[in-house]
Amino acid sequence: MRVLSVLGSTGSIGTQTLEVVRQNPSDFKAAALTCGSNIDLLYEQILEFNPSAVSVFDEKKAYELKKRLCAEHPELPVEVYYGQEGDVICATLPEADTVLGAIVGVAGLKPVYEAILAGKDIALANKETLVAGGDIVMPLVKEKGVELLPVDSEHCAIWQCLWGEKKENLDRILITASGGPFRGFTREQLADVTCEKALNHPTWKMGGKITIDSSTMMNKGLEVIEASHLFGVDVDRVDVVVHPQSVIHSMIRLRDGSVLGQMGKPSMILPIMVALYYPDRGPRLLEEFDPFDPKCCNLTFERCDTSVFGLLDLAYDAGRKKGLLPAVMNAANEAAVGAFLDGKIGFLDIEKTVRKVYEDYEPSNVLKFNLDDVLGASDEAFAKAKEMLKI
Ligand code: NAD
Ligand code: MG
C-alpha cells in the first residue's frame, strides 16, 4: 500500500488523485492533505479520507477549519497546520511514503524539496517545481535515491515509452500539444480574446492557471524544460508537435529511427495511476480506448507558430541559458497569468510582461545556486511583474 501526502488536494489533480484513492482503498491511503484556501472541500475530504494531518496555506482559513472540526467532529484525530510550514509538515509526514505534488506554481517547490530530503517518493504534477528548481531537485533525487514519478500527461507518456530503453538510445523527444483554444489565431485576433474564452480548453479540463498557460503555449514551454530535467536531455532535443486531438500524449524517437508513442483519452486519471502504481499497473478506471472513435480516426500534426505564441520560444531560450532564468520567467508568468485571471490585464500583456521581466533580469555569474536563491529570484521576478502591471 502507498501512503500518500496529497499537496493541493482540492485542485483538479488533487481531486482526481483522491478519486484514484477512493476507487482503490486497499492500495492507497491519504495520510495528509493540503490546500490553499478551499476549506469547504478540504473539510469534506477530511471526513471521507480521515487523514492524520492537513494544512491550509491561508492562516485564517486554517483556524476556521480547526474550529469547525472541533465543534462538529472532535473525535477526528486530524492535526491542522497552515502556511508554508504546514505544507512542509504534511510533505514530510513520517507515515507517508509518497508525496503527490499538485500545488500550482512555484509554491510547490519547497514542500517537494523537503519531501525528497526526507526520503519520500514524489509523484509530480507541479511542473513549476522542475522549471524553477530542476537543477537543484534532480541531483537531490539522485542523492536520496527516491523515485520521481511524472504525472504531467506528456511526461508520463515519455517515461512509459522509455521503460526498458537504454538512455543512450534516446534521440529526440516529441512532446505533443493540443494547441489550446487559440490555435490558428493571428496576433491581431489574440489582442482581444477574453479570459472566458482562454479558459475554454478544447480537450482538457484543468485548473485556471494551467488552462491559461495552455492558451498562451507557455504550458508547453514549461513542459519542454520539465522534460529536459526529467529525462536528462537539452531542450533542443525536445520538439513540440501540435496535435489537436490530444490522443497521442507524446512520443520518443530512438537512435535507429523507431518512434514510440503513448495513446489514450485526455484524462489525468491514467497518468496519476501510472505514477502511483509504478512499477506495477493498476486496474482500469476509464472507459476503454476506442480506436474507431471519430476523434481517433484523423490524427493530425502541425508546428506551433511561435511568431504568434512567442512564449514558447522564450521558454526554449530560458531552458538553454539555465541558471535562475527559468525561475524568473516562471514567476513573471505566474504574476501575469494571475492578473489576467483577475481581469486586470489583456491576453497579450501576459507575454509582454514575462518578456520584459525576463529581458531585464541580470543573471549573476554564480553557477551554483540553492533553494533560497531559486525562491529569492522567483519572489523578485514576481514583484517586478506586479510592479510593471501596477497591480
Ligand atoms: P488547481 O488550481 O486546480 O489546484 C491547485 C491546488 O493547489 C489547489 O488545491 C489549491 O488549493 C492548492 N494550493 C495553491 N497554493 C497552495 C499553497 N501555497 N499551499 C498548498 N496548497 C496550495 O491546479 P491543477 O490544475 O490541479 O494543477 C496543479 C499542478 O499540476 C500545476 O502545477 C499544473 O501545472 C500541474 N498539472 C495539472 C494538470 C491538470 O490536468 N490539471 C495536468 C498536468 C499538470
Ligand atoms: Mg501536460
Explain this structure to me?
This protein is of the alpha/beta class. The protein folds into 3 domains: 2-151, NAD(P)-binding Rossmann-like Domain (Rossmann fold, 3-Layer(aba) Sandwich); 165-266 and 276-320, no CATH class; 323-391, RNA polymerase sigma factor, region 2, helix turn helix motif (Rna Polymerase Sigma Factor, Chain: A), CATH 1.10.1740.10. The protein has 17 helices and 11 strands. The strands form 2 sheets. A 7-stranded parallel beta sheet has the order 4-3-2-1-5-6-7, with helices on both faces. Helix 4 runs parallel beside helix 5, helix 10 (208-216) packs across helix 15 and helix 16 packs across helix 17 (371-389). The model has no long low-confidence stretch (mean pLDDT 96). Nicotinamide-adenine-dinucleotide binds at residues 8-14, 34-36, 38, 57, 87, 102-104, 107, 125-128, 152, 204, 206-210, 268.
Biggest sheet record: 7 strands, parallel
**What is the CATH first-level class name of the largest domain?**
Alpha Beta
CATH topology heading of the largest domain: Rossmann fold
Strand/helix succession: EHEHEHEHEHEHEHEHHHHEEEHHHHHH
Total count of helical runs of at least 4 residues: 17
Overall average residue pLDDT:
96
The tally of domains stands at 3
Q: Within the largest sheet, what's the order of strands?
A: 4-3-2-1-5-6-7
The CATH superfamily of the largest domain is NAD(P)-binding Rossmann-like Domain
Number of strands: 11
Bound ligands: nicotinamide-adenine-dinucleotide, magnesium ion
Shape by Cα distribution: globular
Distance between the termini: 47 Å
**Which structural class fits the helix and strand makeup?**
alpha/beta
Helicity level: 40-55%
The fraction of residues in strands falls at: 5-15%
As residue ranges, the low-confidence spans are none
CATH architecture of the largest domain: 3-Layer(aba) Sandwich
